[in-house]
Amino acid sequence: MTETAPPIDSFGIALPPEWVRFPLADGDFDEFVKLQRNRLAAEAKLSRTAQRQFEIIMRQLRNDCERASVTLAAILNVTVQPDDLAANGVDAEDAAGLLAATCTISSLSQASLGSDLPLTVNTIAAAMARQPETDDEVEIANLEPPARIEIPAGPAVKLVRLHTFPPHPETRQRLAIFAHHVLVPYDAGRRAAVITFSTPNPEYAKPLSGLFDEMVSTFRMFGGDDVTDPLS
Q1: What is the pTM of this model?
Q2: Structural contact between residues 149 and 158, judged by C-beta atoms closer than 8 angstroms
Q3: Which run of H or of E encompasses 213?
Q4: Which domain holds residue 135?
Q5: pLDDT per 10-residue tile (average), the chain, 232 residues
Q6: Is residue 120 assigned to a domain?
Q7: pLDDT recorded at residue 101
Q8: Of 15, 78, 81, 157, which one's alpha carbon is 20 to 30 angstroms from that of 209?
Q9: Would you say residue 136 lies in a domain?
C-alpha cells in the first residue's frame, strides 16, 4: 500500500544572522518600524536618500503583508558610510547610506487567483511573462523573462522585477525597488509558495541576487510530523 505524503502546512527558510524577523501581529508594524528607524538614526546620520529608501522599503513590506497570506517577513537594515559608498562607485552625500532588503514568504491558491488552471511552473511562467500593470504610484517592469529553475524544495519559477517610484516632491529624485521572486508549486498544483526578496538598492542587485539565491536554496516545505529545520 502506497503511503500518502502529509499535506504541506508550513514553510521554513534559513535567515543570515543580520536579518531580523518582522512581527506580523496587528498593531506591531508601526512600533517595529519606529524601533528600526531609531536604531538607524542612533548608528549614523542617514542621508535624505537613505531615509527615503527606508520609507519606501517599509511601505513595500507593509503592502506585501496586507495583500498576501504572509507567514514570514524579515528585514535587513545596515548603514553604509560615505567612504564605503564611494569605493563601490555610488554617489554619496556627506552622510550614511542604507543597505536594506526584505524577505517575505506567502502562498497563492487557484481560488485566490480565480483560476481553474493548475499552478505549475509552466502556467506560472506564462502568467508572469506578461508585463505587470502600472499605476500613478509605481511603474513595474520585468527585468528578464521568468526562468524555470530547480531548487531543493522542487521545480520553481524565478522572476526579477524593478518597481520605480515617482520623483519625490522635494528632492525630485526617482527611487526604485529591485524585487526577486521565486514561486514554488505544491499541493498537486492547487497552491504555490511565494518567496519574495526586495531591496531599495538596485545598484547592489547583482551581489544581493547571489545572496537571495543562497537563501532560496534553504527553503523547505513541511507537513505532518516533519522536522521543521530548513537546513536538515
Answers
A1: 0.85
A2: yes
A3: helix 205-216
A4: 16-218
A5: 66 93 77 83 79 87 81 88 57 70 92 83 89 74 93 95 83 86 93 94 92 96 65 53
A6: yes
A7: 95
A8: 81
A9: yes
Q: What residues contact residue 10 under an 8 Å CB cut-off, 6+ apart?
A: 71, 221, 222, 223, 228
- Grid cell listed for 168: 519625490
What sign does the dihedral 79-215-145-127 (CA atoms) show?
Answer: negative
CA distance 142 to 10: 29
Residues 114 and 232: their CA atoms lie apart, in Å, by 35
**Do the domain assignments include residue 198?**
yes
Q: Give residue 2's pLDDT.
A: 43
Q: Which residue, 69, 59, 70, 52, is CA-closest to 111?
A: 69
Whole-number Å distance between alpha carbons of 183 and 84:
34
Is 213 inside any structural domain?
Answer: yes
The cell for 104 is 517575505
SS3 119: coil
Domain count across the chain: 1
pLDDT of residue 5: 64
Q: How far apart (Å, rounded) are the C-alpha atoms in residues 120 and 220?
A: 18
* Interaxial angle between packed helices 29-43 and 48-67, expressed in degrees from 0 to 180 and rounded to the nearest 10: 160
Q: With the C-alpha atoms ordered 37, 11, 230, 154, is the resulting torsion angle positive or negative? A: negative
